[in-house]
Design goal:
This protein is an alpha+beta fold. 12% of the residues lie in helices and 14% in strands. Bound molecules: zinc ion.
């Protein structure tokens, strides 16, 4: 039976929704993976999608992307990306 936080109040709080529901979409093998955003053009790297055009398979964590990979939008390197805090 699924655990429903704060269900006694009839609705889950926003914090619970953000932590439990949102992370379920970005989870691989029980390990949470983060999105990263390009600080130059705001392109977002989603580990669930990867970057097929750049040779990055879906499910690849940003940390596992080769160092020579560049932003598909503006061409800057990984060091110009910032972790997206959720
Ligand atoms: Zn970019």
């Amino acid at each position: 039976m699924p655990i429903e936080p704060h269900s006694e109040r009839g609705q889950p709080c926003a914090a619970c929704l953000g932590q439990r529901w949102a992370t379920s979409e970005t989870r691989k093998g029980g390990e949470r993976v983060s999105k990263y955003v390009c600080t130059v053009c705001d392109w977002v790297y989603d580990p669930e999608i990867g970057d097929p055009d750049g040779g990055i398979e879906p499910g690849t964590a940003f940390e596992d992307i080769p160092e020579d990979w560049v932003c598909p939008e503006c061409g800057v390197g990984k060091d110009m990306f910032e972790k997206v805090e959720e």
